[in-house]
Amino acid sequence: MNTLEIRNLCTSFFTEKGELKAVRDVSLTVGAGKITGIVGESGCGKSMLARSVMGLIPHPGRLVAGEILLNGRDIAKLSQREYCAVRGSEVSMVCQDPMTSLNPVMTVGRQVKEAILLHNDVSGDEAERRTIEAFESVGIPDPDKRLKSYPHQLSGGLRQRVLIAMAMVCKPKLLIADEPTTALDVTVEAQILRLMRKLCEDGTGILLISHNLGVIAQTCDDIYVMYAGSIVEHADPVTLFEAPVHPYTRGLMNAVAALNRNETVLETIRGVVPNLLHLPAGCAFSLRCDQCGKDCADRFPEMHSIRPGHEVRCHLAGGKEGT
Amino acid sequence: MARTLLKRILQAIGVMLGVALILFIMLRIVPGNPVETLMGEHANQATVDRMTAELGLDQPILVQFFRYIGDAFRGEFGTSYSLGKPVSQLMAAAFGNTLKLTVAAVLFAWCLGIFCGVFAALRKDGIPDRLFMGFSLLGVSVPVFMVAMLLQYLFGYVLHWLPISGTDSWKGYILPAIALGWNSAGSIARLVRSTLLDVLQEDYIDTARAKGLGQMGVIWRHALRNTMLPVLTMMAMQFSGLLSGAVITETVFSINGIGRLAVQAISGRDIPLLQGTTLFATMVVIFGNLLADCLYSVLDPRIRKEAE
Questions:
Q1: Domain check: are B272 and B145 in the same one?
Q2: Exposure winner among A214, A288, A316, B303, fewest CB in 10 A?
Q3: Spatial separation of the C-alpha atoms in residues A299 and A282, rounded to whole Å
Q4: Domain extent at residue B287
Q5: B226 contacts in A (CB within 8 Å)?
Q6: pLDDT 10s digits, B176-233
Q7: Residue in A54, A96, A119 closest to B210 by CB
Q8: CATH number at A2-227
Q9: Cβ pair B207:A96 closer than 8 A
């Protein structure tokens, strides 16, 4: 069974200027022990998708439609109180910026311990023992000493490890990592990604969110490309990087510097991401797409499979003109 | 930590001496002769001269100052001109009343201010928020004497619930404490609200929620302590405001406290008493700041680190 299955999820913000569709009709799956990646540029709704799964959509947003099946149970229908019991124990999240994601006035040990005590009926000593264990498992040196450190006394990499330890300490089925390495050095990034790989060995599914194609390519078993709130392409990394179909995905690939190509100027995708308050009626990418046809501007494309395991949301794909 | 504290205490003594000197000089260069005020306008020059010599006011200012400081270190602040008793004795008698009043006012202000601030933040833009913030605007903008008189009129004169003046029973402290604490309750509520709203946007609050903490757990365990950091600074600064408020409150409610002594001292040109009460006020303000610094380092480990 898949650890996470999202079906037709829509999240909107109801602002004074109208409905802002942050997540539109997103369906995806995360397999047990697998890393599923979501890639897209800033503001495309990746983080809102993560927050929707966590049940932490900020005001004035809310889940409009869809199902979030965690091991078969639809958690989208849970009450706030029930959701609290799920968060941290069955699904947990590692946030983007380790520098600001830990409470500055509490020792890191206490912050991790808090998560254990919240979901398990254990003594304080036992919780501390488990905290030390968790610190060891994410490679924090001198775990029993580090326990008493405050966040400002740790480096960024160590803080991210603490956050991962905190997220993993109750052995959740699903870990959502929202840009876990964006704020870190490249060397530390590699360590954290290796750690992620190790974590899913015991069956945890990971949803890895990033704008960095390199990170996604290197780590994930399955990749979803997101644009303006919806998934535009889904494939395994080899297919996606070797034969991208959606014009947006191809644009992204061309915008990355490759060592084996002799480029002086990187390609860019013309135009900007459309305002989510005023999305075009048809394909959200139609305004920036060089192959945009008549259908593209008028009709929102459906996600369709072009070969097993490779889906794309484009009128031009799937045996029609232009592909 | 102990070294920092010692340093701060030494600094505090320096500030006290500075304030004492400035005060001393000011009181002696303002026009008007205290002896003449004391003796009445019909006293002859010989008596005035004799009295001036007796009080030591004919000596050079610095001699007077050092004599005063020497006495002060022994706990002697001279004898009040107008009341005829040692200043230390007068202040000791008044201190208890002022302390009770201030503690009651502070408790009132903190409890009400923090409660209203947190509640308003949680119901942002809702009816409680608007109501509390409207009230706190009144709190910040209505002067102490006005609040005092309104309270006296409403609860003392119209409803007869509480005494209008005097401190015969604990009930006598209720209205003065509210009048005195009203202002700071308003500003504390506003600061708590805005700080808490900012803190709730922080990433570590998301982390706490992602851990599975409910709204109350997030507020109590994670948000409130971070919210209190700037609030604490303001509370310490309000100490001086409370003191000046105490002068007015004690006068309006006829409470025999330090503030009322100060008013008597000013109107009677009673230099020793005025020096005593002012130095006392300085001490309280310095102590308030010192206390805030200590609490600050308890609450915020980042500062503790620097101090070490």
A1: yes
A2: A214
A3: 4
A4: 87-307
A5: 103-105
A6: 888 888 888 888 999 999 999 999 999 999 999 999 998 889 998 999 989 988 888 8
A7: A54
A8: 3.40.50.300
A9: no
